[in-house]
Specification:
With about 425 residues, this protein is an alpha/beta fold. It has 3 domains: about 5-220, 2-Layer Sandwich (Nucleotidyltransferase, domain 5); about 230-325, DNA polymerase, domain 1; about 340-420, DNA polymerase, domain 1 (Orthogonal Bundle), CATH 1.10.150.80. About 50% of the residues lie in helices and about 10% in strands. Strands 2-5-4-3-6-7 form a 6-stranded mixed β-sheet, with helices on both faces. A two-stranded parallel sheet has the order 1-8.
Amino acid sequence: MTDAQETAADSSLRTTGGGPPDDVETAPTPLLEPREGVPEVIGDADALADVISAFAAGTGPVAVDAERASGYRYGQRAYLVQLRRQGAGSALIDPIACPDLSGLGAAIADAEWVLHAATQDLPCLREIGMIPSRIFDTELAGRLAGFPRVGLGAMVESVLGFVLEKGHSAVDWSTRPLPDPWLRYAALDVELLVDLRDALEKELDRQGKLDWGLQEFDAIASAPPAPPRKDPWRRTSGMHKVRRRRQMAVVRELWNTRDHIARRRDVSPGKVIGDAAIVQAALAMPADVQALSAVSGFGNRLRPRQLEQWQAAVDRAKALPDSALPQPGQQVPGPPPPRSWADRDPAAAARLAAAKAAVTEIAEGLNMPQENLITPDTVRRLCWEPPREATPESVAAVLAGHGARRWQIEQVTPALVTALAATPD
């Protein structure tokens, strides 16, 4: 970044929620190069040790980002980690060449980590030993502050007045060596992240929402790793078309076969076979390889030997006893889908309608998305199984039991008490 660009950054920290003031018309400045240039990618222990020392000696928050290869590789592992800290500059680290970054994580453990959409990056960072104790999520801060567009590029432009080039966001980051334009893009992603954090902190403070943000950030940083999803095959796109249990068993067998192949090849499951092909095969219930080859997604791209393993999966599902077939619908704890409430429990449906209206009104008044004010699932659970007596204390206890933060409970409890009281059983 040139001296002129640094001056522009200092003068363009626009801290008006939702974007710049109406009377300010300034053309955004393209941000083309990191201020110290694109750093060399760290790929060996000695270079990593130097980075660890530099970042341990740095000051202030640490901007952190990670690039994955979604759609190309199996899983959500990190293929590049970017960091920036005052006094240390920027660093690009190859976590394939340096798979254990716990030393780096420990060196900056006491610092605040600044991430954009933290919940997307924290799982893959955790896998390589980087676990923060404190974070600041600039995307979530933008939501709480009422910005209509909260992608990193949109936030940097509306708050700081710079344009980030975002053309490489969906590339295959497992590529080696990484092309120079991709590395420039990656370095720029952390170039202004701390500046954005500082501006958003001021804006949240101006709106009286800073403590809310801090509670949210603490909840993300302290959350345990998500458990493995139960029956992930049920999330196959188009699954709603599959209604018979035997057909569901075919989906399950084909999904598990695909997952095994994708894991072994280290490729995205969608590159092995698409969801649409799995669903079509389940509906067709092919009797043999020749019939399977007529199913869209199988015949045109697979060799006979490959078709045989897919047909074997279909045959395994056909041979299962009825007792081993999956049950229709995913058994999940909690209330049923709201569309069935009117028939199953009209009083609960009335409570939910009143509660949703109340939450909508509050969210609009606070200029933030409803789901950030209180999660829809929490509202549904409260309305399906309300406390025996809807008092502020009992409602607050239910909300806290479902993970609502203190600020959320304070904002919505009075209105939810009123909504529940207005719709008695």
